Amino acid sequence: MNLLFRLLINTVAILATAWLIPGIRISSFTTALIAALVLGILNTILKPILELLALPVNFLTFGLFSWAISAFVLWVASLLVPGFVVQGFLSALAGGIVLAFIASLLQSLVKK
């Protein structure tokens, strides 16, 4: 149940991010649900590998390169999910930041 609830929270966060960031478009709630699922899988499998490979760069930038990795993962998710479009790196970067903020905010509101 907890996993399904987190998936729903991330779906709402993706919809809110698409509404706030002009370069991100989502066609429907179902597409947002699939995008949340794909993004969760990519964050579980791909992101740790990328963070390990980029550890020296991340160390030199005091962790700021993690945002670039998150943007890349968001862009890869948009390539895998039809109806989920991320236009350009700046949209992916802003979308990754906003998505992380909204998902964290929603999860903290729900826990209380």
UniProtKB/TrEMBL annotation:
Keywords: Membrane, Transmembrane, Transmembrane helix. The chain crosses the membrane at residues 7-26, 32-50, 57-78, 84-106. It comes from the Bacteria. InterPro entries: Phage_holin_4_2. It holds the Pfam family Phage_holin_4_2. This is Phage holin family protein.
